Amino acid sequence: MVKRKRTSVEDALEIILKQLPKDTPSTISEIASETNLSWNVVDRATSLAMDMQDYFHANKIEVLGGRGRKIVLVELRIDLTRLPSKVREWFIDEKFFKGKEKNHCTTDEARQILGTNTENEGRTKFESAVQCVIDALELEDELSILELSKRIEINRRTIERVLDFFLRFQEYFADFYLKKIEGSLVLRNHPDIYALDETRMIYMLKKLYLPHLKVELPDEKERTLFQTA
Predict the structure, then answer these.
(1) Of 17, 36, 59, 72, which Cα lies nearest the Cα of 186?
(2) Radius of gyration of the CA atoms of the chain, in A
(3) What is the Cα–Cα distance from 83 to 167, expressed in whole angstroms?
(4) Measured distance CA(221)–CA(37) in Å, rounded
(5) Whole-angstrom Cα distance, residue 112 to residue 150?
(6) Under 8 Å CB-to-CB from 80, ≥6 apart: which residues?
(7) Is the pLDDT of residue 168 over 60?
(8) Contacts of 118 (CB under 8 A, 6+ apart)
(9) Rounded to whole angstroms, what are the CA distances from 184 to 45, 129, 191?
(10) CB within 8 A of 7, min separation 6: which ones?
(11) How far apart (Å, rounded) are the C-alpha atoms in residues 27 and 186?
(12) Tens digit of pLDDT for each residue in 109-132?
């Protein structure tokens, strides 16, 4: 029996995304066989992708600074100049004038909101670290890695690994997403929001940025809504 070489979850995800055909259902076992990766690493990598893909469909991050101090910035991925004027005016009003502001929190306030477990002194799983960093950035960005570390009680080295992971894959998930259907994974293109009519464009903007305004549709109806996109 040939022993598989251990592959990091980050490298595994890159291998999977390069080889996974679009619009073709594949099981974890089939992907593992095609990529010569273990079932466990394929399951971990694809689960991580699904955990972060919605965030990076809507947002992009930038890490500024050098070795001594790094700051994480978050920007909306939508290009407002490409929206029709009526939709652009509506979105700006809902998102920036009526929407909830990101208030600056102290470290202690952020820890309380995020539910940081101060008693956890063990090693944090990478999956948990990914979700913790996303939660912290959704609360407030323009944070240093040191401040992120204080807010979520995760060491700086792990946070840097998470941020490298985000930077490595965020542009991919701006265009594609993984969906689980009856136990199989399917890689799909996101609808091109700029090619949609205004009704569907507004629906997508609500889904990405204004969830409190979104009317939930069953998956089947949402898929039908965008079939002609």
Answers:
(1) 17
(2) 19
(3) 26
(4) 35
(5) 12
(6) 88, 91, 92
(7) yes
(8) 111, 153
(9) 15, 26, 21
(10) 15, 37, 38, 41
(11) 9
(12) 999 999 986 555 567 799 999 999
- Compute φ and ψ for 158, nearest 5 degrees: -65, -40
Question: Which of 124, 126, 93, 46 lies closest to 209, judged by CA?
Answer: 93
SS3 per residue for 130-195: HHHHHHHHHHCCCEEHHHHHHHHCCCHHHHHHHHHHHHHHHHHHHHEEEEEECCEEEEEECCCHHH
- Are the beta carbons of 42 and 12 closer than 8 angstroms? yes
Structure token pair of residue 82 = 């490409």
Mean pLDDT of the chain: 90
Note the pLDDT tens digit of each residue in 74-105: 999 999 999 999 999 999 999 999 867 677 89
The amino acid at residue 216 is: E
Query: Do residues 42 and 146 touch, judged by C-beta distance below 8 A?
Result: no
C-alpha to C-alpha distance for 15 and 8, rounded to whole angstroms:
11
Q: Write the DSSP symbol of residue 23.
A: T
Q: Please give the order of strands across the beta sheet that includes 70-76.
A: 59-65, 70-76, 143-144
Give the pLDDT score at 1. Answer: 42
Determine the average pLDDT of the residues in 191-212. 93
